[in-house]
């Protein structure tokens, strides 16, 4: 059951960060809400304060800078999917985004929310890892930038401190135009969480794999080449993952499917 | 907290508790019960409404978030007692059984046809993917969408075959 | 009853008429129970057990009761009522012990849902956790812990069931046909396998909901989302020891049932809360999570089939042992067991057959009726078994089935003689096989295989089912004429989406020879107003309520003709009518309109005759018998609906992933009343069958906690999951006592979808699948001859996507977030 909390709709970035400084420990940031609303209802989250990040001016925008594509906290999955330039520059964002839940959810769920939630099965994380994206983390006391490879620390855990937000995702331009594929094992053809997700991306012979649902965090396997022997690439992927058995499938099958998906992805992106 | 919203063209001002969802607000505060609760978890789509031109699961939105915004529900679909094109197609094509998913389903179809006036069968399936229906098996709903988008003659529909 | 259509007029029966309550549903105007506001209404919430089996050491409700806004708090010991459909075995709230995860141990009624929820959190329960019995194979053992130590004290329906006190056996149904031993002697092959299906949730889009008020003077009104208003009233009155005329059950639109709303559920608890709250109406709607474990599911089934076959393909003997997992309460499961027993041979002629079907109590959420009532479950194994037999004796599976099908002169397992009027399983099988080009690949399919590397397989499965109901099941219909000559029909058969109101309206219009626009079937059912109907279950509504309605129409016309003959100064035999008036056959200009007759005819001088026109029709199943308790012999079947599915799949041989490309199904429905509605039942049932085949099932940990009580991990088919091509076909072998020859087909499309898919997968890959559902991993494991995964009671309940902090894998209910305590350990929360 949803419990009572104080609701805040800060208009400015400063106002938000000040509220976070005060309420970070006892509060929750609301973006698309597609995870948080469920947690509130189930009593998994019982915040005293709810900070609606979408009310902050300019937070619902994307922009193109020299550093690359900047995605801010209010940008929904469908905002991203609708963006012509993002579509043509980063096909992998599209490949992953379109498999995320249903249309209604994609209208609400934000790119940043999907990442911050740090679910091992998040769809956007493999894409952002492949793209070498950076996280810009802000608080009232400053701003820091880290690569996404350093962002996740465990199941549903990140480096974010209670007073911090992930303010921007910066997707650097270097891997623009890279060939991409995403395979997601689901229980049904309709919307479902991924049981195994393998994103693959190649540009100029460099190959990167983003893998979800096969370790406590989404993970990146980089430093590969499309010229490498397929089995050595599969071995690198198997080396990286640590799948478990759960109600969705077994450890063995996850491992098997990673191998199959990597081999198939190679045929598409190599 | 006070919220001002426009629902189906009518302005409402209500006090709501911070933790109320838009779904609960529409049903319990405004009295529009055509929007249904099927899971309260963003999975089933029975509570789908249009929020500023985009479909959302109203169970996944807080009522306080919709202050100053426009909402359209199934009750706004018929116009002065006349069924909309989509509703008439749903009736003609037997796209309704128990009816519990139907309001949300029609809201998704409306949004789909606005984005894609003549969707393919695959596009229809993707457009209503977020709306569970346990009764119909979806086929007659898909046929209703083809009917509403004037494609039934070209795409065709299934019929009961007598052997 | 099977009067054929007159050719003189445009037939209404058989034509596609729009659903009569459709517009209310597509506009959002239709009011369901959960939409209702009753003045003074309170809201209820229940405290649920996080344990599958535990002794309740103490419950402290002091804090909850003290919370402002709380009007009633109840625990098991406050209530001296027991409920049960066939075995009266369930306390309204658990008393002293809990028997399944999610069972209600306390309840609160408060001024708001939020207050009720807060109050429930304040209730403190101390449990002594005990080791649960979860697997029916364990439950049947002599030394198994007893789920119901007091079984010997329970009342039960003695004509049909055989609970065995001192064990976990709630019922044992035996079938004994022919000489089993001689049959196996005659066989050249004996094929034996074990099959399993997990528990499954119905998933009506509308969860269970009710509002109940218990006023001073024991006047009770129940508004509820139920399939069977009279069963709710009967069971309620039996439990509460109240006269029927003080209890009124009202059911508005129902958002799907599928059997899950066939019996009685939240109503008694809400009534008790209302009584304590001084008669304030109390409402409760189950959350989706509660729908999975507070409310019932479909029973799991573990079964062994042993079949003897001659080399020419004839089955000589079959022994089937079924362990039905009732869960904690018997509810419908004992009758599922009975129905599955007399039906267990499928539409096959098996000369020597034994069935031993046990209903076993376990510490799991209890099973109830679910579309197909046992048949979806046992047909999985039966039709997989037929496939495996055909493979073993090297015969084409379709030929093998054809050879053994029931035909006129065959007898069923319970000894019923099959005639040419019973229905035609052969035509069903052949039509479905032809529709998928069974036995060969088309050039397009060859090309598909070559292009994708996936393997195409085709599979068949048959099905049959008779209504599982008492031998004396009855129904009535009342038709009342309005003063404009239109009519309203009252009956208690519930429209739950299956289209019965439309079918009944068509039957009445046909019988009355009225335009269908003049016929209304009342939507809201009310036990104070509607005449009796047993239940809306079993695909029996068309025959029983259809026939009652025909009789009611005849009675209305007879009454109208009687008055008209006085007005027109002739005898009824010289009269005829159309949709407007009754006239003298040979002098049509001499007539009186129905409007003139409707509420009594008035002569020009003011004299009145006749009075309001009504017609009453009463129908009861005739000629059916109880089953002999030793041999199972008897006549249980009102009618048999036969059917068959043909399925085309393509399978990825490397991963086991597969798609169902096509399904073609055929049913012998006797007579189609409305083709669009029959097709709707066919499509919807088939897709529900697809869900049960591919992805649905309860997963428990070894402590008996349900791990997937929501749509997160219990998926159901979406629009994207339906096959690209679905063909629905009908055969019309008239049912001699059916309305216009019709018989029911509401449940049948769901039956045998799973084995048809399993057979197609075997055809494509050779994978021998014995367990339902069939997930990609199951196919992969079967192809690789790996052990099946340890679901559905899993040793490794670890989730990949939930926070460790929050208890890793556990269900979405706060009570369940506590680590599993050891045996005997005392825990409170």
User: Would you tell me the structural class of the helices and strands of chain C?
Assistant: alpha+beta
Spatial extent as radius of gyration of chain C? 28 Å
Apparent shape of chain B = elongated
Q: What assembly state would you assign to the polypeptide chains in this entry?
A: heterotrimer
Strand order of the largest sheet of chain C: 3-7-1-14-11-12-13-22
Largest sheet of chain C, in brief, is: 8 strands, mixed
Low-confidence stretches of chain B: none
* Beta strands of chain B, count: 6
Layout of strands and helices, then pairs:
The complex is a heterotrimer of chains A (270), B (163) and C (829).
Chain A lengths: L5 E3 L4 H11 L3 E4 L5 H7 L6 E4 L9 E4 L2 E4 L5 H6 L1 H6 L1 H7 L5 H6 L2 H6 L7 H7 L3 E6 L2 E6 L4 E3 L2 E2 L6 E7 L7 E7 L10 E8 L2 E7 L6 E7 L4 H11 L10 H19 L1
Chain B lengths: L1 E6 L2 E6 L6 H8 L18 E4 L2 E4 L12 E3 L12 H8 L9 H14 L5 H7 L11 H10 L3 H4 L5 E2 L1
Parallel strand pairs in B: 1-5
Antiparallel strand pairs in B: 1-2, 3-4, 3-5
Chain C lengths: L21 H5 L15 E7 L5 E7 L1 H5 L3 E6 L6 E2 L6 E2 L5 E2 L5 E7 L2 H10 L1 E6 L6 H4 L29 E9 L2 H7 L2 E9 L11 E7 L3 E6 L4 H12 L6 E5 L15 H10 L5 E4 L2 H6 L6 E10 L5 E13 L5 H11 L9 E9 L13 H18 L4 H8 L20 H11 L7 H10 L2 E11 L8 E8 L5 E4 L9 H13 L6 E3 L3 E2 L14 H27 L7 E3 L3 E4 L2 E7 H5 E4 L5 E5 L1 E7 L20 E11 L6 E11 L6 H20 L5 E2 L23 E7 L21 H13 L10 H8 L9 E2 L31 E3 L1
Parallel strand pairs in C: 1-14, 12-13, 16-17, 20-21, 30-32, 31-33
Antiparallel strand pairs in C: 1-7, 2-6, 2-8, 3-7, 4-5, 8-34, 9-17, 10-15, 11-12, 11-14, 13-22, 15-16, 18-29, 19-20, 19-28, 23-24, 24-25, 26-27, 29-30
Helix pairs in contact in C: 10-18, 14-15, 17-18
Write a structural description:
- The complex is a heterotrimer of chains A (270), B (163) and C (829).
- Chain A is α+β, with helices and mostly antiparallel strands and 270 residues long.
- Chain A has ten helices and 14 strands.
- In chain A, helix 5 runs antiparallel to helix 8 (124-130) and helix 9 crosses helix 10.
- The radius of gyration of chain A is 18 Å and the shape is globular.
- By secondary structure, chain B is of the alpha+beta class.
- Chain B contains six helices and six strands; from the N terminus they run ββαβββαααααβ.
- Chain B has a five-stranded mixed sheet, with helices on one face.
- The mean pLDDT of chain B is 97.
- Chain C is α+β, with helices and mostly antiparallel strands and 829 residues long.
- Residues 797-829 of chain C have low confidence and may be disordered.
- In chain C, helix 10 packs parallel to helix 18 (753-765) and helix 17 crosses helix 18.
- Strand 6 (161-162) of chain B pairs parallel with strand 32 of chain C.
